[in-house]
Amino acid sequence: MSLDSIKKEIMADPANADYTARGWEPIYTVSPKAKILIVGQAPGKRVQDTGIMWNDASGERLRSWLGVSDDNFYHSGLFAVLPMDFYYPGKASSGDRPPRAGVAQKWHPRLRALMPDIELTILIGAYAQDYYLDLKPSTRLTDTVKNFRDYLPEYVPIVHPSPRNNIWLKRNPWFEDEVVPWLQNRVHELEN
């Protein structure tokens, strides 16, 4: 199964008919030589409009946390990105709507199969963490991220880099003191 044929299947899926009718393409990045997979929630409006993953303030912070340049992030082939939903879900009363259920279950295994060299999966936010780590419903994101070493070496759970999380970051300085340096070191190891 080729990457192009999977994309055509995603766009032809009746669940995505409204997006395809709008001329929207699914937003994700797959690289056969990727070593790092980033799983987030869903593209924001700006990302959907430009077709470029993490092309916003959240992406700038994410690249800073990873310790990589824009060029390395977008053009090295080291990184792949699979959001929990491939389309912008629309606005909610506070932020964007959550990703639709079932998208990751249906498409992630097939897309991951095209990336045999993934060594680290970065799980951004509760939706990705709940799916990939099979967490109990009562599990708090802060606890999952604080105990990130429990999920190594395959996964590292992190908070979403959105500016909306500035208060969380101020309340949890250990994240930028402990998790970010670990993440940068691991990314640099995988670059070589």
Put the structure in a nutshell:
The protein has 192 residues and is an alpha/beta fold. It contains ten helices and four strands; from the N terminus they run ααβαααβαβααβαα.
Low-confidence residue ranges: none
Ends apart, CA distance between termini: 29 Å
* Secondary-structure element series: HHEHHHEHEHHEHH
**Radius of gyration, taken over Cα atoms and rounded to an integer in Å:** 16 Å
Based on secondary structure, the structural category is: alpha/beta
- Principal-axes shape call: globular
Largest sheet: 4 strands, parallel
Count the DSSP helices.
10
Proportion in helices = 40-55%
Read across the widest sheet, the strand sequence of neighbours is 2-1-3-4
How much strand?
5-15%
Q: What is the residue-mean pLDDT, rounded to a whole number?
A: 95
**Count of DSSP strands:** 4
What are the main properties of this structure?
192 residues; alpha/beta; 4 strands; 8% strand; globular
Describe the structure.
With 192 residues, this protein is α/β, with parallel strands linked by helices. It contains 10 helices and 4 strands. The chain has a 4-stranded parallel beta sheet. The chain is globular and about 45 Å long. The mean pLDDT is 95.
Topology:
Layout: H1 3-12, H2 17-21, E1 36-39, H3 45-50, H4 57-66, H5 70-75, E2 79-81, H6 103-112, E3 120-124, H7 125-133, H8 141-146, E4 155-158, H9 166-171, H10 174-191
Parallel strand pairs: 1-2, 1-3, 3-4
